[in-house]
Design brief:
heterodimer; A: about 180 residues; alpha/beta; Glutaredoxin; 4-stranded mixed beta sheet; two-stranded parallel sheet; 6 strands; elongated; B: about 350 residues; Ribonuclease iii, N-terminal Endonuclease Domain, Chain A; Double Stranded RNA Binding Domain; 3-stranded antiparallel beta sheet; 16 helices; 3 strands; Ribosomal_mL43 (chain A)
């Protein structure tokens, strides 16, 4: 699939958080996870190992996540995660080892549930400026209000660097001061 | 019938892709994509969806109709997720809508039970209690956080926070959609909002009022973040209001002066107007005509008086302690610069 086709289906978005999460308190967005597996098939071996060794710890550490086990005879194992915003995510766990599944569960646990999209920027604000919108007079000197146009001062070329003449005059002044202090 | 239903449930899984419908054909052409499958695929999905709608079988499965559903575990996890200690029975009562009880009664009567013995109680009382707590806390919090904002403004902010849209948004955000026991599915925004108020009431009944107030602050009052307070409470005639305030404060009449103008008699005319009182600058605004610029300048001056400019500090959340303020703020009719001087702002 080309990146263009990806954008046509999945689109793009800005960084966002559901329900101002984290301002007052943090609410884990994963609300339930279902482990679907077969009790006999080899493809589910890693999943069965995970359930035996790590699942109880996971459920203890995350009391806010409802864990369901769904044995299905001779079908490929998968993880189904459901989030508070109503989104779901399936991860195929076919032939995955128990440590792989652990990592995938960790991935599901930490997600916000917003769809995986191309992020237009890695930072976002609804209010880009607290100074208000730009106008042609932002940071302008109000003096130009009472200036008579055409004005010689404002029409003059805008010079930022010292000219050669000015530099020579400056050197000359310095020399004069130095020689003056020597004689006295 | 079973076979038809079986087919539709498999169709339902692919259909959410249709909901975000973009015109693939034209946009693909725009981007120069020669994909031969995207548009036909989307068209086929749309055709199937329309067929299902014609047949009237677009049934949305409730989450509780799945095999893997344990209501006890869900209710337990709901409290844990929010970091609160709910009393299980009170929380269950909060999640029961009155429409569910009447539906159950009718169902039992249809099954031949003459006098249905339902021990459930609906969340009506808890919702009333919860809505009082939400309104009471948010008004006291906002008075304290925005001490110079007039009482009318505070009240309209509270009306916004307690509106059914905001209540429903918060309720859906904490995952009430699957947990509510009600007749319709998906639950209407009113039902979700009422259920959220009942959850607040249940928290008050289960723990303490202070704990419940923290909950309201974290979930309800935070909805004001990113909102312009002056848009929620709009003053109809800002110039008159400002004239009154200056008159009460013993200051001179407000005097709008043109600070800048550009593009006069063109489509892109801009005027920048400042408002002065006793030769002292009190606010400025700009617009495409002088009238709008004066109006904007008056609004800006009021924002400066009430300290709700874009640059003013954000509302205090998190660990910062807020002293709740029971006595009302100054009303717009009484607001004056002299009285505002006596108010301590933090």
């Amino acid at each position: 699939m080309t990146s263009h086709t990806w954008n046509l289906f999945w689109g793009s978005s800005f960084v966002r958080t559901p329900l101002r999460n984290g301002v007052g308190r943090y609410v884990q967005q994963l609300q339930r996870v279902t482990f679907k597996f077969c009790k006999t098939h080899g493809g589910s071996q890693g999943m069965r190992e995970f359930i035996e060794k790590d699942l109880v710890d996971f459920a203890k550490v995350n009391p806010g996540v409802v864990v369901y086990l769904k044995p299905r005879r001779h079908r490929s194992p998968c993880l189904k995660a459901e989030y508070l915003n109503g989104e779901e995510e399936y991860i195929s766990a076919h032939n995955l080892s128990s440590s792989d599944i652990k990592k995938w569960v960790e991935y599901l646990r930490m997600r916000s549930g917003n769809p995986v999209e191309r992020l237009r920027k890695y930072q976002h604000t609804d209010h880009p400026s607290i100074q208000g919108p730009w106008t042609p007079w932002t940071h302008r000197d109000p003096e130009i209000n009472v200036t008579e146009f055409p004005s010689e001062k404002l029409s003059a070329a805008h010079v930022t660097e010292k000219t050669a003449t000015e530099q020579v005059i400056e050197l000359f002044e310095k020399q004069k001061i130095a020689s003056g202090s020597n004689t006295s | 019938m079973m076979s038809v239903f079986g087919k539709t449930s498999s169709l339902l899984r692919v259909l959410p892709a249709v909901a975000a419908c973009r015109n693939i054909t034209t946009s693909a052409c725009m981007f120069g994509i020669k994909s031969r499958w995207v548009a036909p695929y989307r068209k086929e999905l749309l055709k199937r969806q329309k067929k299902m709608e014609r047949m009237g079988i677009t049934h949305q499965l409730k989450r509780s109709e799945y095999i893997e559903w344990n209501y006890d575990a869900e209710v337990y996890a709901f409290g844990k997720r929010l970091g609160e200690q709910f009393d299980n029975n009170i929380l269950r009562e909060a999640l029961t809508d009155s429409s569910y009880i009447s539906q159950e009664r009718v169902r039992q009567q249809e099954l031949g039970v003459p006098e249905p013995a339902l021990t459930m109680t609906s969340n009506n009382e808890l919702a009333t209690a919860g809505s009082h707590i939400i309104a009471d806390y948010s008004i006291k919090y906002l008075r304290s956080a925005l001490p110079l904002f007039p009482e009318e403004g505070i009240r309209s902010l509270v009306d916004y926070l307690t509106s059914s849209e905001v209540m429903a948004e918060v309720g859906l955000g904490i995952g009430l959609k699957d947990l509510i026991l009600c007749k319709e599915y998906p639950p209407t925004p009113e039902t979700v909002g009422k259920c959220f108020q009942a959850v607040v009431g249940a928290l008050n009944a289960s723990t303490s009022l202070s704990q419940c107030q923290l909950f309201v602050r974290d979930f309800v009052v935070t909805q004001l973040i990113g909102k312009d307070l002056n848009e929620i409470w709009e003053i109809e005639n800002p110039m008159e209001a400002m004239q009154d305030i200056l008159g009460r404060s013993g200051r001179g009449e407000p005097e709008p002066r043109l600070i800048f103008e550009s593009g006069k008699n063109t489509l892109e005319a801009v005027y920048h107007v400042g408002i002065y009182s006793d030769k002292e600058f009190i606010g400025s605004g700009y617009g495409e005509t002088v009238g709008t610029a004066v109006d904007q300048a008056a609004r800006d001056a009021l924002r400066r008086f009430f300290q709700t400019t874009a640059a003013s500090p954000p509302l205090p959340f998190g660990k910062e302690n807020v002293k709740l303020k029971a006595e009302p703020n100054l009303s717009v009719e009484d607001w004056s610069l002299e009285k505002a001087k006596n108010i301590i702002t933090c």
